[in-house]
Automatic annotation (TrEMBL):
Pfam family, one: DUF4371
Name this protein carries in UniProt: DUF4371 domain-containing protein
Phylogenetic lineage: Eukaryota, Metazoa, Chordata, Craniata, Vertebrata
DUF4371 domain ranges (all copies): 1-120
Species assigned in the record: Phrynocephalus forsythii
């Protein structure tokens, strides 16, 4: 579809910016400028959107890895399932224990890290 700041059917990214603009006067001013000056440089092309999304994803991943590295106890879980296109994929999840010594709390947390595309699935039989 074609994304437009003034269109009724914008993509998720533009709609998210519109939501942020309701609470952020700087973003509101930027979106208003975009509407009043069509064709102007906005830095919201699909390439820029993908770069923003990648930066946010790497920041979240860094925070998760920091928390996981601090944990004394953790477990890694993998599960394989076909996606909507019937391609086999494996999910990677980490469960870890977050201990806050100052607040005297212990919380078990679980974080989904992503999907890994698998190319073939084999079943092994263990012999005893």
């Amino acid at each position: 579809h074609r994304e437009s700041i003034s269109g009724k059917k914008s993509g998720n990214f533009i709609e998210l910016l519109k939501l942020v603009a309701e609470f952020d006067p700087v973003m509101e001013g930027h979106l208003l400028y975009m509407q009043q000056n069509p064709g102007s440089t906005t830095y919201l092309s699909p390439e820029i959107q993908n770069e923003f999304i990648q930066l946010l994803a790497s920041t979240v991943t860094e925070k998760l890895m920091y928390d996981i590295n601090r944990a004394k106890y953790y477990g890694i879980m993998f599960d394989s399932t076909p996606d909507a296109a019937h391609q086999e994929q494996m999910s990677e999840t980490i469960r870890y224990v977050d201990i806050n010594f100052e607040g005297k709390t212990v919380v078990v947390k679980e974080s989904f890290l992503g999907f890994i595309q698998t190319h073939k699935k084999m079943q092994q039989v263990l012999q005893t």
